[in-house]
Amino acid sequence: MFSGGIVTVFVSDLDKAVRFYTEALGLKLGFRFGNEWASIKAGDSLMIGLHPASEDSPAGRKGSITLGLQLTEPIDEAVPVLKERGVKFRGSIVEDKGIQFAYFEDPDGNELYLADLNKAYKNYAAGARAT
User: Fold this and answer.
1) Do residues 84 and 61 make contact, with C-beta atoms less than 8 angstroms apart?
2) What CA–CA distance (Å, rounded) separates 115 from 19?
3) Taking burial as the number of CB atoms within 10 A of a residue's CB, which of 39, 79, 80, 111 is the most buried?
4) Are 13 and 19 within 8 A, CB to CB?
């Protein structure tokens, strides 16, 4: 029935948001429709739609959205690369039930996190249970 989906993130400055998601995070621009919309490719099955904020849909409202990005490489290798690109993380890498997380925000304060599932998957494949 479904072939994928798009998470829409409302932003105050589309140019700045596109730069953050493509240059700082290293994601790919799918397409851009002037100053009205930009689609960002985040892997094979996630699209992030960037849309200018409005009165009804303000940018950066805390708690209204949290976007998680799965990693293909160890989190302790990805975080330093993203920090060099200007991504500011909140605190250090944390682990919960075998999954490591690192939390940060986009320029509008929308909450994002990295999730390194590699260790949890390896433990699961080896018959170990994540605790």
Assistant:
1) no
2) 22
3) 79
4) no
| Vertex 45: Cα angle to 118 and 107 (nearest 5) | 85
Domains and CATH numbers, the chain: 5-53+65-125 (3.10.180.10)
* DSSP code of residue 84: H
Find, among 65, 131, 67, the residue nearest to 99 by Cα. 131
Q: Which residues of 76-88 are buried (b: 16+ CB within 10 A; e: fewer)?
A: eebbeebeeeebe
pLDDT in tens, 5-29: 889 999 999 999 999 999 999 999 9
pLDDT tens, position by position, 57-79: 888 887 778 899 989 899 999 99
For 41, the token pair is 């490719």
Report residue 82 as tokens: 């993203």
